[in-house]
Every structure is written in C-alpha cells, then in structure tokens.
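hey so u asked for the seq, here:
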Amino acid sequence: DVQLQASGGGLVQPGGSLRLSCTASGFTFSRYTMNWIREAPGKGVEWVSGIDADGGRTTYADSVKGRFTISRDNARNTMYLQMNSLKPEDTAMYFCTQRIGAPRGQGTLVTVSS
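ran it, structure tokens below
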C-alpha cells in the first residue's frame, strides 16, 4: 500500500520559514513524480508544487513561486518543501501525493499568524 507521511508543520509568524518533509513507502518512490498540495479551512484542495522522478524538473503554483522550493532525496524516499516568506494565506494542511486525486496520507498543519 502507498503510505505517505508529511511532517514539519507548525506555527510561524508572517515572513518566517518552515521545511516540510514527506516520507514515502509502499511503492518505488524514485520512479514517481510527486506533488505537494494543501487544503485551507473552508477552501478546496490547491496544488502547490511538483517534482519529477529524478528531481530535474520542478513546478510551482503562482501563489508560492519564488518563496517555496521543492526537492527530493530518492535514497531516503523523502520529498521536501522549503517554505520561506510565509504569509497568512499559506495557512493550511499540507499533504504529499503522487498526483491530484491519489492517496495523500497524513498531512501536516502549517499556521502562519502573528
């Protein structure tokens, strides 16, 4: 079974930084494009960023471009999301997934507030 566990969330002030991690198991991680998505209270799921299987190509939503950086370590079956210059509107549960609509496992809560 595909298992995904996001971690690293927390409470941070506007302008602060967090680094999220996603640990994967149950599939050959190094063969899959992976994505970060988020879901804010009262809002739908928003795609945040994606990275291809070998990490050579990354994509970002306009809302996070220039502030977030996605990366992966295939030897550790782990994906990361470095989030800088955080804004209150970044507050959400963050999940990792192979693609929109696929299993997303347990998320991690990011709260940006003063």
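The mean pLDDT is 96. Residues 95 and 107 are 5 Å apart (CA to CA).
lmk if thats what u needed
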